[in-house]
Automatic annotation (TrEMBL):
Biological role stated in the UniProt entry: Phosphorylation of dTMP to form dTDP in both de novo and salvage pathways of dTTP synthesis.
Residues annotated for ATP binding in this entry: G10, M11, D12, G13, A14, G15, K16, S17
EC number from the UniProt entry: 2.7.4.9
Classification lineage: Bacteria, Pseudomonadati, Pseudomonadota, Betaproteobacteria, Nitrosomonadales
Gene Ontology process terms (BP): dTDP biosynthetic process; dTTP biosynthetic process; dUDP biosynthetic process
Cited NCBIfam families: DTMP_kinase
Species in which this protein is naturally found: Candidatus Methylopumilus turicensis
One term of GO molecular function: dTMP kinase activity
Family: Belongs to the thymidylate kinase family.
Keyword DNA-binding listed: no
Catalytic activity: dTMP + ATP = dTDP + ADP
Name this protein carries in UniProt: Thymidylate kinase
Length: 201
């Protein structure tokens, strides 16, 4: 049986990465193999593209194309083979991030993202997307006290407002796939929400 494809999304500082070890354990407790991966990245070439994407200034469409180039490699070499052998795939970000950051944040037309998505993914879509949502002030405050910021993390509160709105818009457009997790509560409560969602799979 084909595995399930789960993606994690949210603004920088929304806290999604904190939950990855727990989600892996919850899936493993069902007795299935799970692989944990990330975008941009997930392959040797993809990680090289990530280093460029997170550090170099570039045209927004170049950024979009490189995101999808990394994604093509990731799907072909990691995601599809795993799903085909029945493993579950947990990806820290996927295409919703391109809609949020490159289209919502940078203004690349949604039509261009839609056509690249169709080209690179065919029919592949996540079975479940957890959107970790926090108010922009919270994410900006968390980032200010975090490690050295990358190119995206140095962006303004206005940029993050665009990102958050674009993500919430994606969730509204795809209610069957998305679960919005309120990350602006005690970590223990966020963990309970996540556990409840994963247990329904
Ligand atoms: P992130 O997932 O936050 O990793 P870390 O927790 O290690 O900082 O960083 C990835 C960055 O890449 C994030 O700022 C969002 C950005 N990104 C896009 O702009 N578009 C995309 O399609 C993807 C996958 C990520």
């Amino acid at each position: 049986m084909r595995g399930k494809f789960i993606t994690l999304e949210g603004m920088d500082g929304a806290g999604k990465s904190t939950h990855i070890p727990d989600i892996i354990k919850l899936i493993e407790s069902k007795g299935v193999e799970v692989i944990s991966t990330r975008e941009p990245g997930g392959t040797v070439l993809g990680e090289q593209l990530r280093a460029l994407l997170l550090n170099e200034a570039m045209h927004p469409e170049t950024e979009t194309l490189l995101m999808f180039a990394a994604r093509r490699e990731h799907i072909a070499n990691v995601i599809e083979p795993a799903l085909a052998r029945g493993a579950w795939v947990l990806s820290d970000r996927f295409t919703d991030a391109t809609y949020a950051y490159q289209s919502g944040g940078r203004g690349v037309s949604a039509e261009k993202v839609i056509s690249l998505e169709a080209w690179v993914q065919g029919n592949l879509q996540p079975d479940l997307t957890l959107l970790f949502d926090v108010p922009v002030e919270v994410s900006v405050a968390r980032l200010a006290s975090a490690r050295t910021p990358d190119k995206f993390e140095r962006e303004s509160a206005e940029f993050f407002t665009l990102i958050r709105n674009a993500y919430l818009d994606r969730a509204n457009k795809h209610p069957n796939r998305f679960r919005v997790v309120n990350s602006n509560q005690a970590l223990s409560d966020v963990k309970i929400e996540v556990k409840n969602i994963i247990s329904t799979l």
